[in-house]
Write a structure and sequence with these properties.
This protein is an all-alpha fold. It contains 19 helices and no strands. The longest helix is centred in the middle third of the chain and has 38 residues.
Length: 489
């Protein structure tokens, strides 16, 4: 996370605000057309986890091979859409400075190639997670982020168009990671070899069916994200697109931490559901939701209360309204931590059609609401408040539909997670605000002061979470974990 944020700083400084905004905008159009990739990730991991949970290893071979065929078909679809509808949109609809139009089109083509590579990597990534090879997954994430740091060196010394060069270097990093995943999978997971020999047509169809329903929310989420980006471009130009890009970098880097935590828990939830151990599933859902929420709060709180100082040290030239957008974006992520494990239960059950249609309609409503806010001249950061509200509604709907599968009700989530979690965070933020207000301290101006302030905020957060956020059993669980770690040493 730290390297990613530092990388963003250097990229913004090297490319400049306009070029960074163009890359974020043009690359975002490609992401808009990869709506099925997230759904295919979900579908592939779901079928592999259920098969492994049932210990049907022969069937796992056919499922993986079928997922490879499905992703090749997806790649073909992606290229067709991106080179027709997407290219038309780039050339005719976006507001790009005339002297950067050619560079934008080159970066667009490179973004397509990078997306194709990432799509083909999905089955191998799903296989690694399904087998809970979390050490490899963690090391791979570290390798990838340091590769993205390494490409900054040629970016700073070469005299060619830096925006185009950055596009080529990102393609190179994605290609290296694909080869890395294929090599590990072939070595450790033998069924990932000979992928075109054992596939079954009906499995390919099943994967696409499941992904088809899953893609409803993927389309809605990507459309909402890129819809905001495009509307900001139309109303404010590429300068504020750079702000959106920084906001996305911050929120994605923070939430990736939570996503990795939940990625380790999702396979056990699916496997236990496949065996019918619903008591264990309930425990995993509650624990994962609660700990994910507090992990996000721990990471977000120091950033929220020191955002101006952090941005000025992190970025040499801070785009307009970046501080407000980052704060609102981090707050809007909180409901998602609770909804993640519930969505995993729905995936395991396979009954996702009604849920996907409902939440997709609610999510896509963000776009007309964004337009209304911007059209009538309200501050653009209000769009993130709207997004927080819809995220919260989606969590309640998902809880209502998913918890019944494992013998729980909405009152369980409200009593055990929502009230204690949000109540604890409100107490934490109130204490930190009052300390700052009563001490009359100005924002810290140097790195040492920022680190000190963040440490104080972190200590307060940890103390409040431990004392009022966790129940007796959860506190004992943490004490036992810490004790075992100390005794091992």
């Amino acid at each position: 996370m730290g390297v990613t944020l530092y990388t963003s700083r250097v990229v913004l400084s090297t490319l400049g605000i306009d070029n960074f905004g163009i890359y974020n905008l043009v690359g975002g159009v490609v992401v808009l057309f990869t709506f099925l990739s997230a759904a295919m990730t979900t579908a592939t991991q779901r079928f592999l986890c259920i098969s492994i949970g049932k210990k049907d290893y022969n069937n796992t071979q056919y499922l993986f091979s079928s997922s490879i065929i499905a992703h090749i078909l997806l790649i073909v679809l992606l290229i067709i859409i991106a080179e027709t509808l997407g290219l038309w949109f780039i050339k005719t609809q976006l507001v790009i400075p005339p002297n950067r139009e050619f560079a934008a089109q080159v970066v667009y083509q490179l973004s397509i190639i990078a997306s194709v590579i990432n799509v083909y990597r999905i089955p191998f990534n799903a296989a690694v997670l399904a087998h809970e090879r979390m050490s490899f997954y963690a090391y791979s994430g570290i390798v990838e982020v340091f590769l993205k740091l390494a490409i900054l060196w040629p970016l700073t010394i070469c005299n060619i168009d830096k925006l185009v060069l950055y596009g080529y270097l990102i393609v190179g990093v994605n290609l290296i990671m694909l080869v890395w995943y294929i090599f590990f999978s072939h070595y450790k997971l033998p069924y990932t070899r000979h992928t075109l020999r054992y596939y079954k047509k009906n499995y390919v169809i099943d994967i696409f069916k499941f992904a088809g329903w899953s893609s409803f929310s993927a389309i809605a989420n990507i459309s909402t994200r890129q819809g905001l980006n495009i509307l900001i471009n139309i109303f404010y130009g590429v300068g504020l697109n750079a702000t959106i890009g920084i906001m996305n970098q911050v929120s994605s880097s923070i939430y990736q931490f939570i996503g990795n935590f939940q990625s380790a828990i999702n396979p056990p939830i699916m496997k236990e559901y496949a065996t019918g151990d619903y008591k264990r599933v309930r425990a995993l859902v509650i624990t994962t939701s609660k700990f994910s929420f507090f992990l996000l709060a721990l990471l977000a709180t120091p950033i929220i209360f020191n955002i101006d100082s952090i941005l000025h040290i992190w970025l040499e030239d801070v785009p307009y309204l970046t501080n407000i957008f980052c704060i609102f974006a981090l707050i809007s992520l909180l409901p998602n931590t609770i909804g993640g494990p519930i969505w995993t239960v729905l995936q395991a059950s396979g009954e996702i059609r009604k849920y996907q249609i409902t939440i997709s309609i609610i999510t896509i409503l963000n776009i007309p609401l964004f337009y209304i806010i911007l059209y009538f001249g309200f501050p653009p950061q209000y769009t993130i408040i709207v997004q927080f509200t819809t995220n919260l509604i989606v969590v309640f709907i998902g809880a209502q539909m998913g918890l019944s599968k494992i013998g729980m009700t909405i009152s369980h989530i409200t009593k055990k997670i929502l009230f204690p979690n949000f109540g604890t965070v409100i107490v934490i933020w109130t204490i930190i605000y009052l300390i700052g207000y009563l001490s009359n301290q100005s924002a810290p101006s140097n790195l040492l002061n920022i680190i000190l302030e963040c440490c104080i905020d972190l200590i307060i957060s940890l103390a409040m979470i431990y004392s009022i956020g966790l129940n007796h059993n959860e506190r004992n669980f943490l004490k036992n974990c810490v004790t075992k770690k100390i005794l091992k040493r």
